[in-house]
Amino acid sequence: MDATSSRRLAALGGHLVSASAVSEGGGAVVNEQMAGLGLNDTAATGSGVQQELQRLLEHDSFEERRRMKELMKSELFIPRYAVPLAEERELALQRLRVLCHSGNFRIEDFRVDPMRIFAAHECAAFADPSMATKMTVQFNLFGGTILKLGTQRHHDLLLRGITSLDDIGCFALTELGYGNNAVEMETTATFDAATDEFIIHTPTPLAQKYWITNSAIHAHWAVVFAQLLIGGTNHGIHGFLVPIRDKQDLRPCPGVRIEDMGHKMGCNGVDNGKLWFDRVRVPRSALLDAFSQVERDGSFRSVGSLEVLQALFVVREGRLLGQLVAAMKEGRSGPQASPAALLLRRVFDIWMRQQSDTVQHTAAAFAEREVLEACCRALAARSLSPALRALLEPVVRLYALHRLEQDLAWFLTEGLVPLASGTAVGEAARALCRQLAPHYRTLLDSFGIPDHLVAAPIAGDWAAYNEADNQGELLGQVW
């Protein structure tokens, strides 16, 4: 049995026994405990415990969250559905602009107080998923890359504008032919020593930057990832800051071709696009050079050899992912002096083509264990009140049982859960649902989503909402 599976089993094992007891009548004991704490009275759970649980769930940045939720009472944040594509995109941009100008977060918070930005993301998602997606690209992908890979000249140029949304950016990594597989990407950045410039170029249709958020209509800048070529030598993928639009009239810059990807199944406030670069010249300072530098004479310096780092990463992956060890060893077989690039290609082939299902299963198992352990740490905290602990403990067990039930076939076929115990999992989960049902309002209210951000007419005056032809929109005094 691999190490990941062992950790997962250890984390879940105790919960199976406890939940089975619930299905056999043990739930009465827990219900008595909850009753003794006043938790069978829904009114009792609607104030102090709800507020304590909300604070636990929100975790941080409480005042910033409150202010952002208040901002979203504005008419601008009322959901709109039957609107043209251009209007939906403009709504997402204007909503994001309001949050960016609120003073509740800034791009530098990633270094000094990252929880403020994470809180802003959560609040944005309450109101508009398209706005939240644009925010993620502006701050995390574009802004975060400038902050991490850029140096002072890049920070002086853009950080203030990233926070204010005066400089809108996109993250040009994925390519039509290769997704985010950086090893295969074709976009090039060739250093021209005569002019002290890089030439950004899209050599084939498969190299076009594809599905790039913010690029279709709003972005002024792109962080473009390209193969760095100097004097015929490929130094691997690096990031370059490339202007793609004039900030005044929003026309594409010379040599930049932008195609709008149009209407999607959802999140149509997000303007996804395709980017082509026809020998676009940018100054040498466009290289995001925190870890790699190109001098005026074309000499290249980097923190560590790329070949050595690639080999180290291969070894790390092989050792940490227990269930994939055998496959990794197979990929590393062959001549001892195999070039690092060939070694990496073999591992990539196994990782993406032969063992893709195992990789995804392992990732899900890791995430579920992390969530469960975080919940258990919260339950063990001394600051937790007895009333909240009595309410939260069955919620955590319900989560563990639900995830176990979803993957029950694997646990049974691996012989890790006896058949008799496996058949009890479903009923144990349902018993916990019945036990928690009287407290649903407390649990829901603890997420701290204000009424004005619950975009569902059925949550308001349903009868009054349907007295007039509203065309499905959330408008008028009823809302």
Automatic annotation (TrEMBL):
Q: Which domain of life is it from?
A: Eukaryota
Q: Which GO terms describe its molecular function?
A: acyl-CoA oxidase activity; FAD binding; fatty acid binding
The residues covered by the Acyl-CoA oxidase C-terminal domain are 349-459
Occurrences of domain Acyl-CoA oxidase/dehydrogenase middle (ranges): 170-280
Q: Which GO terms describe its biological process?
A: fatty acid beta-oxidation using acyl-CoA oxidase; lipid homeostasis
Q: Does Oxidoreductase show up as a keyword for this record? A: yes
Keyword Flavoprotein among UniProt keywords = yes
Spell out the GO cellular component terms annotated for this protein, sorted alphabetically and separated by semicolons: peroxisome
Pfam families assigned: ACOX, Acyl-CoA_dh_M
Give the matching InterPro entries.
Acyl-CoA_Oxase/DH_mid-dom, Acyl-CoA_Oxase/DH_mid-dom_sf, Acyl-CoA_oxidase, Acyl-CoA_oxidase_C, AcylCo_DH-like_C, AcylCoA_DH/oxidase_NM_dom_sf
Q: Which UniProt keywords apply?
A: Flavoprotein, Oxidoreductase
Family that this chain belongs to = Belongs to the acyl-CoA oxidase family.
Q: Indicate what this protein is called per its UniProt record.
A: Acyl-coenzyme A oxidase
What species does this protein belong to?
Chlorella variabilis
Q: What is the lineage of its organism?
A: Eukaryota, Viridiplantae, Chlorophyta, core chlorophytes, Trebouxiophyceae
